[in-house]
Design brief:
6-stranded mixed sheet; about 350 residues; alpha/beta; Alpha-Beta Plaits; 11 helices; 2 domains; Rossmann fold; 14 strands
C-alpha cells in the first residue's frame, strides 16, 4: 500500500479563467473549444514554460499554475494579457477569449503534483474579482515586485476570503495599452443580436448565514437555465458573482460587463417559508421592466425556480410561449434552486 506524503510549502500561485465562458459555449461550443485550445497551444502554455511555471491542473475554462519566482509569475501574466489584446481583435468583445488572472504567494499543501490550501483559496477569490483582461495581485506580491518591475498598481482595498481569518488586500496591475493603427481605425463592434443579461447576487435581507449557500445555488441554476435559452447572451457565474458585497449602480455594472439587462432581487425567510423578490432592470435607463414576488417553502424550490426562470425569460425576450414550453420540456431544471 502506497502512502502519499503531505508537504507544506510556500509557493507563488496563479489562477486564471476565461471571461464569459458559459456564454461563449452557449453560442458556439466547438468554436470556443477550438479557440481556447489554440490560445493555450500558441500562447499560454509556451509563456508559462518560458517563465518556469508549472501547470498544476486545468479546470475546463481555468488554470492553476505554480511558480518559484514572484517576478517571473507577474511577467508571465503581463505578457499573456497584453498578447491576448491582439488575439481575436477582429471579433466583437463578447466573442473573444479573454482571461482574468490573479497572483498570490502563500502557504500551500501538496500531496504530490496537486496543491491546495489558503494560498490557492486566496488566489481563486482574487481571480473572481479581477476585471476581464486584468491581473489582481495580493499585497505580498505587490511588495515583492514594485521595486523590481516597471509597473503601477491600483489599490482595490481589503476583501474577505471564505475560511481565511483576515481580509486580503488586493491590488490591480495597471496594464498600459499602446494604441496601434488597427485599434485607432477600428469601428465599434455592433451590439449583439441577442439580449445580454447578467444575474446579480440576490440580497439576503434576513441576514441568516445558512441562507447564503441557498441563495448562491439559486443564482447558479438560474444562470444555467438562462444560458440554455439560445436567444440570450448570459454573463458567467464567476463574473456576476464578483459583484457580491460590492456597491455599484446598474449603469456601472452594465458598462463593465457589456450587458443590456440586469436581473436582481432579494430573499426574506420566515420559518420554512421564503419570499423572493425579483426584478429585471434595463441598465441604460435604470428602468424596472418587470418585477415579481415569489412565495414558497424550502421544500418546493424546484417549482419556485421554475416560475422565476420562466418569468425572466419571458420578460427579456418576447419568445412565443410554445417555444418556451418546448425548451423547458427538452431541458428540465434541476431540483435545487440557487440565487444570485
Amino acid at each position: 500500500m502506497v502512502h502519499s506524503t503531505v508537504e507544506h510549502r510556500f509557493a507563488v500561485v496563479v489562477c486564471a479563467d476565461v471571461v464569459g465562458y458559459s456564454a461563449l459555449m452557449g453560442r458556439d461550443e466547438e468554436g470556443t473549444l477550438a479557440a481556447l485550445r489554440e490560445v493555450r497551444r500558441d500562447l499560454v502554455d509556451p509563456k508559462i514554460a518560458e517563465h518556469k511555471g508549472r501547470i498544476v491542473r486545468t479546470m475546463g475554462d481555468g488554470l492553476l499554475v505554480e511558480f518559484n519566482s514572484v517576478v517571473e509569475a507577474v511577467r508571465c501574466a503581463i505578457v499573456i494579457q497584453q498578447s491576448m489584446r491582439e488575439h481575436g481583435a477582429e471579433l466583437p468583445l463578447d466573442g473573444r477569449i479573454r482571461f482574468r488572472i490573479a497572483i498570490n504567494v502563500g502557504d500551500v499543501v501538496s500531496d504530490g503534483d496537486l496543491i491546495y490550501g489558503d494560498g490557492v483559496a486566496t488566489a481563486t477569490r482574487m481571480e473572481s474579482l479581477a476585471e476581464p483582461g486584468g491581473i489582481n495581485i495580493s499585497r505580498a506580491v505587490r511588495d515583492q515586485v514594485r521595486d523590481r518591475l516597471p509597473i503601477s498598481f491600483e489599490d482595490l482595498g481589503e476583501h474577505e476570503v471564505p475560511n481565511i481569518p483576515r481580509p486580503v488586500r488586493i491590488f490591480r496591475i495597471l496594464l498600459e495599452e499602446k494604441p496601434t493603427a488597427a485599434t485607432m481605425n477600428r469601428r465599434p463592434s455592433p451590439p449583439p443580436d441577442k439580449p445580454a443579461v447578467a444575474v446579480l447576487p440576490f440580497q439576503n435581507l434576513g441576514g441568516d448565514p445558512d441562507m447564503e449557500f441557498f441563495l448562491d445555488s439559486v443564482a447558479e441554476d438560474l444562470i444555467t437555465e438562462l444560458a440554455r435559452a439560445r436567444w440570450f447572451s448570459i454573463v458567467a457565474r464567476n463574473t456576476s458573482f464578483s459583484y457580491k458585497g460590492r456597491e455599484a449602480d446598474a449603469k456601472q455594472i452594465a458598462r463593465e460587463l457589456g450587458v443590456r439587462y440586469l436581473v436582481e432581487g432579494s430573499l426574506r425567510k420566515a420559518g420554512h417559508r421564503v419570499r423572493i423578490s425579483c426584478q429585471l432592470v434595463e441598465a441604460a435607463s435604470c428602468r424596472h421592466l418587470w418585477a415579481e414576488r415569489f412565495d414558497g417553502t424550502l421544500e418546493d424550490s424546484f417549482d419556485l425556480q421554475d416560475r422565476i426562470t420562466e418569468s425572466v425569460i419571458g420578460s427579456v425576450a418576447p419568445v412565443p410561449a410554445t417555444l418556451r414550453s418546448n425548451a423547458r420540456a427538452a431541458s428540465p431544471m434541476p431540483a435545487r434552486m440557487y440565487t444570485t
